Amino acid sequence: MNFRVSYLTSTLFLALLLGACSSTPTQQVSPTETIVNQPEDAATQARFSQNLNQLITQIAQTQGIPHESLELGLSDAKTIPSIRKLVLPPSGSFKKNWVAYRKRFIEPIRLKAGKAFWDQNQAFLSKIEQESGVPAEVIVAIIGIETIYGRQTGNFRVKDVLSTLAFSYPDTPNKASREQLFKDQLQELILMCWTEGGGNLPAKNSSQGLSPPRFNACLNQNSSYAGAIGLPQFMPSSIRSFAVDGDGDGRIDLKQSPKDAIASVANFMRKHGWQPGMPIYFPVQEGAVSAARVLADGEPQLKYTVQELIDKGILIKNQGDLQAGGVEPQSKALIVDLPYPDKDGNDQVRYVVGLNNFLTIVQYNRSYFYAQSVAEFAEALGYKNQSVVPAIPSKANTRETKSVEATKSKSKKAASKKNQHSLK
Questions:
Q1: What global pTM score does this model have?
Q2: Distance between CA 22 and CA 5 in Å, rounded?
């Protein structure tokens, strides 16, 4: 992944970690900049060590994990000063640029890799699509945008990242809440690694409190600058809640198993309300930009019905499959704003109507830019973005249909009798 923080508003970025992944894309830095930690001042390092030891003691007491094992696993955890810079919100003078963002992710190299990934996993993708209702194109798009199918999964040790942000978050107005969030993620990481590493099973030299090797390896695995792991960039809490064993080998490996990654993405989307067979978004009608601008408040909530948007001219009845498909007039939607500067530096905005499935993608990564990129990446792979669910006929239409069918039936019976009479 590549650095994306600057494309988020500070509010969206601070909510980012509540979804599946931490941030997309991950900052890529050279090996000389990653694991090497610059020394902190003595006071900062002492405070860091004290807070980490307190967490270790708390987890040992509440979770039944040997204190010695936790100390050994986390004894070399260090702060990374560059991490604190990476999580800072963009400067006030920064202008978000949808056009540049889209160009960065929906581009030939990534699309080519996406088609290759699909070819390699076609049978399994079809199976997961049938089981979950999440289109294969959407799953492939998410993994492609997140890590280019495992090429860019981050270069920081996850325990260093989460420890840094839990106990040495930069001085921002929401520092306390951010530190608590990452402290929770660090605990989730420890519990995840202890379970995955077989720490709950008898181990050699367990009387000496030695951690199982897999426990340490799990704590030391690479992550993004915000602690997201593997092909789909799941945070530890999301791994514990939504990751699944797709390849059936008895363990979840989001780093090396494409099947685990595919199944986990689909499971996350399904559990966050993905509606099978329904579209993600509709374009706003030309000439309705002013009406859309009034309704675009930036809040990721489904506030308006499709019928209301039709009444305002933002959508039209025969647009997409609104008339014949499964998108009913009372379906809820939101107006999505995608700002960008034009070639002269003037502020411009593209508007689309996001439906329920758009908001589901936002739950994966809380950015409109991200969600729209996933939708358009999927379209580039062949996703039709239209309903495949037949519309439920209204009572009036049902009565009319039954009346027509009854009339046809009577006509058939009358013709049958006439034919029978002529044969006699």
A1: 0.83
A2: 10
